[in-house]
Amino acid sequence: MPQLGLLHGRAWATLLGQLRQSPGALCLRAVHSHSQGQSPLQVSEAVLTSQLKPHQEKSNIIIKTPKGTRDLGPQQMVVREKILDTVVSCFKRHGAKGLDTPAFELKEMLTEKYGEDSGLIYDLKDQGGELLSLRYDLTVPFARYLAMNKLKKMKRYHVGKVWRRESPTIAQGRYREFCQCDFDIAGQFDPMIPDAECLKIICEILNGLQLGDFLIKVNDRRVLDGMFAVCGVPESKFRAICSSIDKLDKISWKDVRHEMVAKKGLAPEVADRIGDYVQCHGGVSLVEEMFQDPRISQNKQALEGLGDLKLLFEYLTLFGIAGKISFDLSLARGLDYYTGVIYEAVLLQTPAQPEEEPLNLGSVAAGGRYDGLVGMFDPNGHNVPCVGLSIGVERIFSIMEHRMKTSSEKIRTTETQVFVATPQKNFLQERLKLIAELWDAGIKAELLYKNNPKLLTQLHYCENMGIPLAVIIGEQELKEGVIKLRSVPSREEVAIKRENLVAEIQKRLSES
Question: Three-state SS string across 36-96, please?
């Protein structure tokens, strides 16, 4: 042991750390080395070298975020919080309660809920004897929560991250990790009243965010399944064909038809019959037209869906939003758990020429009715009818972020209302007492973390950060019992009695 004392202090500390972490492995190496005729000092140095080498190699690591994820800087967070505030305040206005669930669920809770998309679920390694997966959306965890707590009614909102193992397209706001904002109504109610409210909420949010013109496509899974049946699609292929139809907003009918025939084994004449329907869209008049269709009118399931859509349009007219809704037979929403009305909101780009069709800029909200999902978790199979919507925060954020980059408007990254400054040295204590007074009054305030900052530096900071007010304290102010209150934009200053300062600041802030 005396030879170990020859080690450098840092090396000795490292060796002790290795002894604490893996004494067995260290002893084995020491025994093996000693048998080769090496001294304890040589053994120690060899162990340290082997342990330090991996750390030296880490210097070549590429520092980046994982594929399909991103960091959000302060300016981006301002935009994101504005979006979330608009969304959540709308949810609350409609009477929703907040809810949160774990970021991961038991794997068996998520399997067989998403159809073909189930392959996009992130599975986690077995830790503690449970097979877990990151949540794919916020809807299935909500259904699990309802079943687990035996709840029959609930109106809830949930904001949280979800994960999907798909190929990301960052420019279109498609990530592997992204935020969802969900609103759902669970419970047995008269038909189409909650569904109409969900569509009204989407309109309120998109209008509130001022994203431009938009359209909400509406369909019904019963109409869709009825259409598949009368066109000759085998029932075993309903979900697979539905998944193909769901791609019509991204690829052409020709490509969708090819996928259904060549990859999913659908007969060409059946695909052509489907094509006659899925290229139709319109308002309530199209619903009436489908009632008269010789094939569709023979299918009981489709007629039930059309009846609900007709009632839905009545309520949407009363809400004053029927003009924003389009009955679109191509809307499929590939997720397996939808059972009734489905919808998807898309932004429209105004065409350059009057005769041109508006351009679809992509889906920014979607949802629908899922009456059978809760029953999949209930041991007795008791169902709780549900309908809900999800706001596409990342897509909306990408649009607003692009606008932010092209705009000359400066974005404030803090909400600081008042800056505490001094023109003189040795006034740190007075500044600290003053800022504590402002904080205690609930005023958002800052100061520079320097003992003797220059006044010009302090005022430049106020202007650069967009802070509207500055309070200035110096020897003269201290003697007279006043504080100078400066309007940063106009650079006008007035002397305020110290005891009246908080009230004066609050008054100015309420008027701004």
Answer: CCCCHHHHHHHHHHHHHHHHHHHHHCCCCCCCCCCCCCHHHHHHHHHHHHHHHHHHHHCCC
Instruction: Give 218's pLDDT tier (boundaries 50, 70, 90).
Output: very high
Nearest to 360 by CA among 221, 251, 203, 200: 251
Kindly state the tokens that stand for 465: 């950060």
Cβ atoms of 212 and 403 closer than 8 Å: no
- Residue 34, pLDDT score: 46
CA atoms within 13 A on the CB side of 40: 10
User: What DSSP string describes 132-191?
Assistant: EEE-S-SHHHHHHHHHHTT-S-EEEEEEEEEE--S--BGGGTB-SEEEEEEEEEES--ST
444 and 343 together in one domain = no
Task: Answer yes or no: are the C-beta atoms of 15 and 7 closer than 8 Å.
Answer: yes
CATH label of the domain that carries residue 148: 3.30.930.10
pLDDT interval class at 219 (50, 70, 90): very high
* Alpha carbons within 13 A on the beta-carbon side of 266: 31
Predicted structure pTM score: 0.82
Q: How big is the chain, counted in residues?
A: 512
- Whether 449 and 476 map to the same domain: the answer is yes
Query: What Å distances lie between residue 69 and 30, 191, 250, 361, 508, CA to CA?
Result: 45, 40, 23, 22, 42
Q: How confident is the model at residue 136 (pLDDT cuts 50, 70, 90)?
A: very high
Residues forming the annotated binding site for L-histidine?
137-139, 164, 180, 184, 333, 337-338
Q: What's the pLDDT at 246?
A: 84
Token duo for residue 288: 């009436």
Residue 57 is assigned to a structural domain of this protein: no
Tell the residue number behind the tokens 């798909």, with chain if given: 166
Q: Which of 429, 388, 419 is nearest to 505 (CA)?
A: 419
Number of domains making up the chain: 2
Binding site, by residue number, is: 137-139, 164, 180, 184, 333, 337-338
